[in-house]
């Protein structure tokens, strides 16, 4: 058994720890989007594979038998490539996918299908928007230049941003409710735009928004072709046939 773990999430880092504890032969893969990625307890490679064909070659060259896709739910291109490359090579594929967030009492959420719809959902009158969507899809919000945008990024931007009125906060998750509540207060935030990522690491802003009555425009996850998916690290270990090792029995 030789495993490729596709990472870039808190869950992927926890998965790497479980694989290392179990003594499994595994390689961790980062896209290379951040300047200083979290160190992993597994041999780590960084950078794209070169599309489906590059991934097919990589899987064969490295004699991979199992791929665990623990990428972010919005990293749909990587997930699609993994589905196609594993189908072509006969490598077993499992998605580790956290459940989407669901609204509860007191939440003022507006679900939208994509980034363009999130731009449309913002008001016409000037607002103070916490744009909690990373740095890759900021440009469409230039269509609503009347708003002030608070951006929370992992690394300082290296070039000019496509938005005029911005405040940038540099921070890396996981985030907590008290700090996110203070962020909403200090920046007088009137709206939040976020991706429905699920999981614990980025949920604090939603809890803080509920407490402060701030509306949230929540972008739905992109659809993926059918694949086998589990929600927990324990279930991945069972899939790998190492459930007992993981639980320390
Ligand atoms: N999208 C988000 O909102 C978000 C949020 C938090 C973290 N992340 C993490 O950031 C990374 C990039 O996300 P994205 O949305 O840009 O992905 P994406 O749009 O699905 O992927 C674009 C390309 O980046 C490369 N890539 C992505 N993930 C990779 C990985 N784990 N290892 C090696 N190459 C990878 C692949 O390049 P090739 O085609 O050349 O192989 C892929 O085709 C992922 O690791 C993801 O888990 C994403």
Walk me through what this model shows:
It is a single chain. By secondary structure, this protein is α/β, with parallel strands linked by helices. 30% of the residues lie in helices and 21% in strands. The protein contains eight helices and twelve strands. The radius of gyration is 19 Å and the shape is elongated. NADP nicotinamide-adenine-dinucleotide phosphate binds at residues 6-9, 29-31, 33, 48-51, 54-55, 71-72, 74-78, 81, 134, 195.
Strand order of the largest sheet: 3-2-1-4-5-12
Q: What hetero molecules are in the model?
A: NADP nicotinamide-adenine-dinucleotide phosphate
Question: Mean pLDDT across all residues, rounded?
Answer: 95
Strand content: 15-25%
Number of strands: 12
Taking pLDDT < 50 over at least 5 consecutive residues as the criterion, the unreliable ranges are 245-249
Main beta sheet strand tally, sense and closure: 6 strands, parallel
Amount of helix: 25-40%
Global morphology: elongated
Q: Give, in order, the helices and strands.
A: EHEEHEHEEHEEEHEHEEHH
Secondary structure category: alpha/beta
Q: End-to-end span in angstroms?
A: 21 Å
Radius of gyration: 19 Å
Our count of helices gives 8
Structure, briefly:
The chain has 249 residues and is an alpha/beta fold. The protein has helices at 10-21, 51-61, 76-89, 115-121, 177-186, 204-212, 233-239, 243-247; strands spanning 3-6, 26-30, 44-46, 66-69, 92-96, 109-112, 128-132, 148-153, 166-170, 191-195, 216-219, 229-230.
Topology record:
Blueprint lengths: L2 E4 L3 H12 L4 E5 L13 E3 L4 H11 L4 E4 L6 H14 L2 E5 L12 E4 L2 H7 L6 E5 L15 E6 L12 E5 L6 H10 L4 E5 L8 H9 L3 E4 L9 E2 L2 H7 L3 H5 L2
Parallel strand pairs: 1-2, 1-4, 2-3, 4-5, 5-12, 6-11, 7-8, 7-10, 8-9, 10-11
Helix pairs in contact: 2-3, 5-6
Bound molecules: NADP nicotinamide-adenine-dinucleotide phosphate.
């Amino acid at each position: 058994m030789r495993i490729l773990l596709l990472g870039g999430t808190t869950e992927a880092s926890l998965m790497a720890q479980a694989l290392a504890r179990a003594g499994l032969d595994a390689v961790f893969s980062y896209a290379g989007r951040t300047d200083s990625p979290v160190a992993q307890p597994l041999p780590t490679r960084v950078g794209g594979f070169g599309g489906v064909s590059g991934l097919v070659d990589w899987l064969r060259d490295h004699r991979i038998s199992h791929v665990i896709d623990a990428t972010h739910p919005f990293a749909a291109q990587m997930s699609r490539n993994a589905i196609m490359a594993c189908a072509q090579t006969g490598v077993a594929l499992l998605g580790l996918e956290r459940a989407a967030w669901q609204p509860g009492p007191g939440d003022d959420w507006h679900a939208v299908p994509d980034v363009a719809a999130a731009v449309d959902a913002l008001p016409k009158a000037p607002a103070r928007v916490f744009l909690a969507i990373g740095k890759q899809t900021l440009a469409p919000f230039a269509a609503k230049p009347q708003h002030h945008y608070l951006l929370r990024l992992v690394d300082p931007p290296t070039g000019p941003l496509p938005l005029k009125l911005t405040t940038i906060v540099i921070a890396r998750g996981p985030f907590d409710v008290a700090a996110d509540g203070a962020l909403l207060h200090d920046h007088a935030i009137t709206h939040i735009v976020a991706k429905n990522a699920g999981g614990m690491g980025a949920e604090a802003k939603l809890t803080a928004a509920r407490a402060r009555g701030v509306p949230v425009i929540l972008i739905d996850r992109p659809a993926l072709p059918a694949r086998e998916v589990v929600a927990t690290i324990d279930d991945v270990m069972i899939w790998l046939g190492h459930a007992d090792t993981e639980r320390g029995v």
